[in-house]
Design a protein that fits this description.
heterodimer, A: 303 residues, mainly beta, Cathepsin D, subunit A, domain 1, 9% helix, B: mainly beta, Immunoglobulin-like, six-stranded antiparallel beta sheet, 7 helices, 10% helix, globular
């Protein structure tokens, strides 16, 4: 009965605000809500509307299999999805005829079908899927954590290289960090205690993460604050530690006292092209605004 | 062990100085938690004081490790069982260590979410209406709390008269930034929203900028960083006449864990009052006048407080009558259940012509309870929802959902089990009807997982397409209850 004052039409109209731009370029501003530290946006799969989690740690579109069991699937033995012992885990894959969010449309979009029940259960909210990197490869995306808005711009093929988002005009407010896209993951180079390290940028990781197998010279820079017990999807429990990392250099800039979760990242050696040493997650990304230009492979970090 | 080698090259004194960098221990109270070679190391002085050990265990979240037994009784079982290796460094310094294992044995996509373990759930942070919120009150400055009239609450934003437009966004309209336009008045902007009693989150959107309500002192962080204003649509007015010379009066009760200085009452012309939101159910309370606990004399409803006095009682919602036939020769029969935290002194039943009875108000939900007859706990013999003779009896208040299992005409016994009854396989027997096997239950807002048990076999709901994987890899059926 709470919605009597708001007609559904009004709500819909309030969602994306569009601008007119050259043929294949599209701009929109998408409001988001938060489930804990996760960013949730509305999106549509064929005729089904619902919440999706923006996940720069996912390679592409993922659908929660609970709601898409009747979609035709092909089972693929994908190297990216290999389990820890190197044994490949089969991932069901399907094709979505029409997928859309904001003012972006995708036709015949490939998607992985995965059981995301554990996220729903920990957040208490219905999740239709994850929005991963593949969907944004032609885009510039700026996430404004203060205003709860995502500024999304699909960069047109014929669009002049002079395109610049209005938020990026004042170059003194942000700094630019280059990244690599490896297997549809954002990898940034950092350095710590004189060592070069590779970090994945993952807006759906609720903590920053540091590998427990790193050299002692690096681990010595962490002040342990708390032990935590993590539960895997198979209910196996392992210990991990929360701590504060004294200093890390990201894009030439020194970041001090970064909160990190220390856990064993052995599995990333199989899941990624080579191991990663850590993850930059919500704690780091959500300080102000954060932006990604996937065409130019540049990350914008607001000060 | 390499860890122990490192310790051995340090003298005890040297180590104490070294450790002071981390934990600033006092002499004889060495305690540290470090990481090296992919392993965690906990170093503790055997003679650490109880207080110091207690704070170490709390700080680092180690209550399940069994450190008390380890240090005080030399029992290593619990520590070793949890995979820790024990090294005695010296007569006084103990070290335990454990390798940090990899969590992921599945895909990294599904593994990542484990990092959320300690967050409040989304429904706790952003429910459409209060979900599991027991009570609340408003704290405004510069303006009165938003008034409500026939469930219509008038939200008011003071000032900003030069703004072009203002909107109200909140948990009640899906945080839609332009769904609820506010109207300009001579002193600010207003918007009317129909709200049931409960807790709500909101923000104003003025010319496109999201802002908290500066005049509302109740704010909540939605997890990290993002602050929202909080409004309680109240449903109960507590008032105490007189005591006008008192310096302060507080309200304390079962709804705030009896904290004596938490709910400050407001001074009125002839006494004190406090409007509160209270969830449906039965609540106990007292007033605390300048530190002295007193009962609400104006309220005839009372219950024993366990220390030879009484608490005042307020109920919201409809009562349920508990009755126990027989036991006429018993001296005292009490009721206790999940609805009152199993307190066994609080709810005495009244003797009737043929047994015992108590009318008690409980909000919607599924509960477990027992009677206590002269100190002996018994299940309710008159309640068919009693799976074991000595087990708890189940009670369902305001069922809002009917489980139906079609077919299985030849089955002898069918049960439904799920989140709502702690997956008890024999608590909720289904009834054979024309439509199939049925059972009515109360389901809370959000997700519920369940299964049917047909003659001992657990099965998914054949008429529900939605199911998710469980730890046995046999699946659970899933339903969502919306507002």
């Amino acid at each position: 009965m709470f919605f009597t004052l708001v007609s559904p039409k009004q709500q819909e109209a309030a969602l994306p605000s569009m601008e007119l731009l050259p043929a294949d370029s599209v701009s929109c501003i998408i409001p988001f809500t938060r489930a804990g530290n996760l960013i949730m946006v509305k999106a549509r799969v064929d005729t089904i509307d619902g919440n999706f989690i923006l996940d720069t740690g996912a390679p592409g579109l993922v659908l929660n299999i609970t709601y898409f069991r009747d979609y035709p699937t092909t089972e693929s033995l994908d190297e990216e999805q290999s389990g820890i012992a190197g044994s490949a885990v089969g991932v069901k894959r399907t094709t979505v005829k029409e997928f859309s969010f904001g003012s972006l449309d995708y036709w015949n979009q490939k998607a992985d079908l995965i059981d995301l029940g554990h996220i729903e259960n920990s957040k208490g909210v219905k999740i239709l899927g994850l929005l991963g990197i593949e969907l944004f490869k032609q885009c510039e995306m700026i996430i404004d954590y203060e205003q709860n808005l995502i500024h999304l711009h699909r960069i047109g093929r014929k669009e002049s290289s002079g395109y610049k988002h209005s938020l990026l005009e004042d170059t003194s407010t942000y700094r630019i960090v280059p990244f690599e896209l490896t297997d549809n993951r954002i990898i940034v180079k950092t350095s710590m205690a004189g060592k070069k390290l590779k970090f994945v940028v993952d807006c759906a990781a609720e903590s920053n993460v540091l590998d427990s197998r790193l050299p002692n010279k690096i681990l010595e820079q962490v002040t342990i604050t708390k032990r935590v017990v993590l539960t895997g999807s198979n209910n196996r429990k392992v210990d991990a530690l929360f701590g504060d990392l004294e200093s890390i250099k990201i894009g030439g800039e020194e970041v001090s006292n970064l909160p990190v979760l220390i856990t064993n990242l052995e599995y990333t050696c199989f899941a990624y092209a080579g191991c990663v040493d850590g993850v930059l997650g919500f704690d780091f990304l959500s300080m102000h605004k954060i932006g990604f230009n996937f065409v130019k492979r540049k990350m914008y970090i607001w000060k | 062990m390499r860890g122990s080698f490192i310790i051995k090259i340090l003298t005890v004194w040297g180590m104490i100085i070294f450790l002071q960098l981390f934990a600033a221990p006092v002499f004889g109270q060495v305690k540290s938690y470090t990481i090296k070679d992919g392993k965690m190391f906990i170093r503790l002085d055997k003679n650490i004081s109880d207080a110091s050990l207690d704070s170490f265990i709390t700080q680092f979240n180690l209550s399940d490790l069994g450190l008390w037994d380890f240090l005080r009784k030399n029992k290593v079982d619990s520590v070793v069982k949890q995979g820790w290796q024990v090294v005695t460094e010296s007569e006084t310094i103990y070290v335990i260590s454990k390798k940090i294992e990899s969590i992921s044995d599945q895909t990294n996509i599904t593994a990542k979410n484990i990092f959320n373990h300690q967050d409040l759930s989304f429904s706790a942070l952003f429910p459409a209406v209060s979900n599991r919120v027991i009570m609340g009150y408003n704290r405004f400055k510069n303006k009165d709390a938003f008034r409500h009239n026939d469930s219509i609450v008038t939200f008011y934003l003071r000032g900003h008269k030069n703004a072009k437009r203002a909107y109200l966004a909140g948990s009640f309209n899906d945080w839609s930034p332009a769904a609820q336009a506010m109207k300009l008045t001579d002193s600010g902007w207003i918007a009317h929203v129909k709200l049931k009693p409960g807790k709500y989150w909101y923000k104003f959107v003025v010319d496109g900028n999201w802002m908290v309500d500066e005049d509302n002192q109740l704010r909540e962080n939605d997890g990290r960083g993002n602050i929202n204003s909080v409004f309680f649509r109240t449903n109960t007015l507590f008032s105490l006449k007189g005591y006008t010379n008192a310096r302060n009066v507080f309200l304390a009760g079962s709804f705030n864990e009896w904290k004596p200085k938490n709910l400050r009452m407001n001074r009125t012309a002839d006494g004190w009052e406090l409007p509160l939101y209270l969830v449906d159910g039965t609540h106990m309370y007292k007033f605390v006048v300048d530190g002295k606990w007193i009962r609400d004399e104006k309220n005839p409803s009372k219950a024993p407080d366990g220390v030879h006095d009484f608490n005042s009682v307020i109920t919201i919602g409809k009562p349920h009558v508990f009755s126990l036939k027989g036991y006429k020769e018993a001296n005292r029969v009490m009721l206790a259940g999940s609805f009152n935290d199993w307190r066994d002194f609080e709810l005495p039943m009244k003797k009737t012509a043929d047994g015992w009875e108590l009318s008690y108000v409980i909000g919607a939900g599924n509960y477990e309870y027992k009677f206590i007859v002269d100190g002996k706990w018994i299940s309710d013999p008159g309640n068919p929802l009693t799976p074991n003779r000595d087990g708890n009896s189940y009670l369902i208040i305001e069922p809002n959902y009917t489980f139906i299992l079609k077919g299985f005409e030849n089955a002898k016994q069918v049960y439904v089990a799920g989140d709502f009854n702690s997956w008890n396989p024999t608590a909720f027997p289904m009834k054979k009807t024309k439509e199939g096997w049925t059972f009515r239950v109360h389901l809370p807002m959000g997700k519920t997982r369940y299964k049917f048990i047909v003659d001992g076999n657990w099965i998914l709901d054949p008429d529900n397409k939605l199911w998710e994987q469980n730890e046995h890899r046999t699946g659970n059926s899933v339903i969502w209850i919306d507002q």
